[in-house]
Predict the 3D structure of the following.
Amino acid sequence: MYVLCVDVLGKGKGLVAIENISRGTRILSQEPIITVPRNEDSEQLRISTYQQVGALGEHQRRAFLSMHSIHAYRNAAEQYHGINRWNSNIKRHTVHALRDIREGEEITIYYLGVHKNRKARKEALQANFGFQCSCGLCSLPLEQSQESDRRLDEIYRSDNLIGRGGLIEIRRSPLRFLRNVNEQVRLYNEQRPDDAGLPRAFLDAAQIAIANGDLARRRIFAERAISGWHMANGGDSMEVIEHRILARDPSKYQLYGISMKWRTQDSWQISRTARSSLVLNSHSQARLQHV
């Protein structure tokens, strides 16, 4: 037990660390109250949701509907959908420490995408959740907040460039594509070391390397992505399991064999100097495959 539910000044109920928590620790692991299959049509979703909520006991249903993590909703089914940190492999909701947490600190989570600047975050949180956030990022002094927003806006711009490029850009201009990823990684590291967005960037770099036959660096980039997901989601998460398999066998990547212009052997005999000079990161395999 790492946390305790207490009254947090000005915020209502919150979770506070009752001991020092190391980065990567799984703080919470809970079974869901209701589950909703992906790709359900609206009628199936409505029926499934009503059945599951209706089956809850009165106390549990009231407690569930009183949670402040329930989105503003457009229909009755959406009323029951909360914030998701879902581990589809173990079928549990999990929360992990993205940095070392001191005893007495409040445990907070991302409600939104990691790329939103402060103005966008505050507007979305107020509209969807009804509160003004006072986390460390949202409470930065004005000058630091503006600098953070600049980085986040640049990450978002770079993210869109990488996403739009897809397979065509990987074939046509792999070095330019790789430079975009490198810039994204630099910005993430300036924003915060071990940022939650870094594994996706490392995966992009791995796929670019695979597409051009650089299997040695492919392995390094893939392992860095896996390490980041392991810290943020746990070693039993699907991101870690699936990409660990792909890291061992690059032929399973859709991009494998497109080009061999950067061909290297898949070997661990890369010098420590060469390894330490590899700064790059990666993005979402699914996005690059389907653009």
Q: What stands out?
A: Confidence is low (pLDDT under 50) at residues 71-83, 267-291.
